[in-house]
Design brief:
By secondary structure, this protein is an all-alpha fold. The protein folds into two domains: about 35 residues; about 70 residues, no CATH class. Helix content is about 60%, strand content about 0%. The longest helix has 22 residues. The protein is elongated and about 75 Å long. The termini are far apart. The mean pLDDT is about 85.
């Protein structure tokens, strides 16, 4: 589409349209991107599994920690609560259920 649209524009307008598009992309990235530094894939798996089970509110892992939220999630408070002991409690519950099954 850009090739067809840009064929009707002058060089100055091409640079103008491209810069406006880049600025819009910058704003969207700043609002919606998240910092996933030091978050393991197992956290994503746990969150996805609970989401697929229809229980996303039960996830209280590191992805709900303030430093791993997007600006949009912070502003609208569209995230769950963070419990630092959630993962260890979940592992302990699975261990107990495995012991009860045997």
């Amino acid at each position: 589409m850009a090739t067809v649209a840009f064929s009707y524009l002058s060089i100055a307008w091409i640079f103008f349209v491209t810069s406006i598009t880049a600025l819009i992309a910058l704003v969207f990235t700043w609002i919606f991107s998240v910092d996933l530094t030091h978050v393991s894939l197992s956290e994503h798996d746990a969150q996805l599994e609970l989401f697929l089970e229809g229980k996303p509110e039960k996830y209280k892992g590191r992805l709900n920690k303030v430093e791993h939220l997007s600006n949009y999630e912070r502003w609208t408070k569209r995230h769950g609560e963070f419990d630092p002991e959630w993962a260890s409690n979940l592992a302990a519950n699975y261990k107990k259920s495995d012991e009860n099954d045997t």
